[in-house]
Amino acid sequence: MSDEHIDEISGVSTTSHEWDGIRELNNPLPRWWVVTFYVTIVWAIGYTIAYPAWPLLHSATKGVLGYSSRNEVKNELTAAEAAKGKYVAAVESKSVSEIAADDTLREFAVAAGGAAFKVNCVQCHGSGAQGSKGFPNLNDDDWLWGGKAEQIQQTITHGIRFASDPDTRLSEMPAFGDIITADQIAQVSAYVASLSGKVQDASLIAPGAKVFAENCVSCHGDNAKGNKELGAPDLTDAIWLYGSGETAIAAQVRAPKQGVMPAWGARLGEAKVKELAVYVHSLGGGE
Amino acid sequence: MGRLPPARVEVHVLDNTQVERLEAEAVNSAKVRQPMYAARKKIFPKRASGSFRQFKWLVMAITLGIYYLTPWLRWDRGPFAPDQAVLLDLANRRFYFFLIEIWPQEFYYVAGLLVMAGVGLFLVTSTVGRAWCGYTCPQTVWVDLFLVVERAIEGDRNARMKLDAGPWTARKLVLRVSKHAIWLVIGAATGGAWIFYFADAPTLVGELFTGTAAPVAYITVAVLTATTYTFGGLMREQVCTYMCPWPRIQAAMLDESSLTVTYNDWRGEPRSRHAKKVQAAGQPVGDCVDCNACVAVCPMGIDIRDGQQLECITCALCIDACDGVMDKLGKERGLISYATLSDYNANMMLATAGGSGSVNPSLVRTADGLFSDKVAHFHIRKIFRPRTYVYMGLWSLIGLGLLYSLLTRDRLEVNVLHDRNPQFVTLSDGSIRNGYTVKLLNMIPEPRTIVVTMQGLPGAEMSVVGDDIPAGRSFAIPVEPDRLKMLKVFVRQPVGQIRGIAQTFKFRVEDKASFEADEYTATFNAPETAR
């Protein structure tokens, strides 16, 4: 320091910088502090040798300890798999009803099934399993193919109208646009709509009932309550997969849309399907 | 403390030159400052004796006693809760303090206590200066404890200085090894006591010595042993001077009415080893005989006669040392004393004849050698001033608020989370169902049966998932002691009775035995088309 300045009051030299008449004292640092500072530098160098650190052209140095965060995650996942192993084994050996009856196992299956649902099912059924037009809501108590845990398991395992699975749930509603007249379609739509609500032209109901009896009862039943064996929906309730009201019903009678659900049994394995079945059953509509 | 006591009548009054002069110099003296990196200057505090030293022994016994003994106190809470009076049960997320049990969501009590501690620190600092630093700070207490060990093994100041300067002999080796060994044992005991606050102490002590305790227990003991040994034995005053933020903050807390340890140069200066010669030469002479006793006893290694300084922790040991010397000289005690800046300034004005010249101690004394009436002494009144009223008021207000909240707090609570996805489900008969996660909090260490009832929402019924509870508007359910019970509840309202897309209703929970109850107002959502 060329122009050493000594503070008069403390007798300490200053850093020679001045801000509005205020100077900074240049008190000595404690030696242990300085030593600690150098130790941290040495430590940092050692750290970059021990752990992955220095960037190279296409990668980075690996570090002599061989640490990698990917391995860490892998180990943690392995440990997690091992920790839940006994529950998975129990799920594999028991039926879905037995799982649902056991508090601990049900809790495990609901959690595991919920996670699997988020990955595999939300694309169609929605993140809250609330469904949308054409994709059934799994929270309610209306089931096309049955809402018992075993029936849900069957549906998930083999799918619906899934051509490559021979055991898939299969039914097909004919396109009545080619079979009956447009007037008859309007009549039968009015009749079906009247089963759960009001219709505009009540005079259509009686002829509609006749059309229904001639064409529809074989699947939907005499009282239009549907048939779960055939996946034929109940037409008297408040839940409509392809929309309520005469227009939506007429469209479905003329050229029905038929939903397809993939078979998950081969893809996810039996245990995961059971967990999914228990989860879906627990959503509030399970029978 | 502030009032200068009358001089003790001694039969054999010493002359100034007969007082032993100690070779001591302040570590932060401007004369010896080094330009760049400074090695720590070793400090060998001499043993002090006097009323402040007595008080400090007492404070040390009490604070160490509280620290080491508290985990061993028992408190019967019945069969469903631990019987340790003070326990931080991190695994179960419960904090027990005698009568009080705190759940994590009640942590604001601890936050409130911390705020009180902060305001209390302001209050104490604004009245009696850095009393926290000087008497109760763990750093001060443990350094004091370590110094007791050092003195017991190596002797007092002179013996220690001699030993330190001397060559490495077998004796020195034995003394040093035993000193550090005892320090390490104290460090281990400190770390050891700490972990007992976090688990059942009698169980843990057994596990600790049989090697079956959790690794975190050993790690904690090891870390605290290392820090206690390093801070209390090796770094000592360096912790206060360089590491602690409080010396910087306290400067803003002190004002001219705060008591601080003060060298009263209005009666001490000009200091002289040869008062009689100086007096004979007609020069003024003060009470200070420049014996350095105040420097020698200082655990911070400073000279209080340089004035108030950042390093001073106001431990008052220099007061004891100086009072001892004043007694021997037959002079009034209090050359170094607790004094306020305003008193000190008033007395300085008196001694310097209005600040016009250097100190002339004869100006503060009457002809017969006693203090003049004009000398200002501390009066307890000075503690009571707007600033301390504000701190005291704030402190009491927070304290009373916490106490009120503690006395009226609920030990039975209900929290409800409404399902958002889906918000509602239309069922096949047209009725609407909403899902809720209902959390029942039984916050006492006894099992209870809780009755959950719906209020409002006409026609609606509850059903509970997983339990064999029939649908209805009320159900009873057992809840384990000191636990939270989580229920999935579906509420279903028939289509004809739905009034609006968002109706409110209440979940009421009640313990029929104690009549404790809590309510939660929840919302029931329905689609526009369901009305």
Question: What can you see in these coordinates?
Answer:
The complex is a heterodimer of chains A (287) and B (531). With 287 residues, chain A is mainly alpha-helical. Chain A contains 13 helices and 2 strands; from the N terminus they run ββααααααααααααα. Helices cover 47% and strands 3% of the residues of chain A. The mean pLDDT of chain A is 91. Chain A has a two-stranded antiparallel ribbon. In chain A, a hairpin with a 2-residue loop joins β1 and β2. The longest helix of chain A is centred in the first third of the chain and has 20 residues, at 31-50. Chain B has 531 residues and is α+β, with helices and mostly antiparallel strands. Among the domains of chain B are: 52-105 and 136-251, no CATH class; 412-530, Immunoglobulin-like, CATH 2.60.40. Chain B has helices spanning 51-69, 108-128, 131-136, 138-154, 157-165, 170-195, 201-210, 215-235, 237-243, 246-253, 265-268, 275-280, 293-297, 317-329, 341-351, 386-407, and strands at residues 86-89, 94-97, 100-102, 259-263, 336-340, 412-418, 425-426, 432-442, 448-455, 461-464, 474-479, 483-493, 502-511, 517-525. In chain B, a hairpin with a 2-residue loop joins β2 (94-97) and β3 (100-102). Chain B starts with 50 loop residues before the first helix and ends in a 6-residue tail after the last strand. The A-B interface holds A 10-13, 26-34, 103, 106, 126-130, 137, 139-142, 196, 234, 237-239, 282, 284-285 and B 30-31, 33-40, 235, 238, 242, 419-422, 425-430, 433, 435, 465-466, 490, 495.
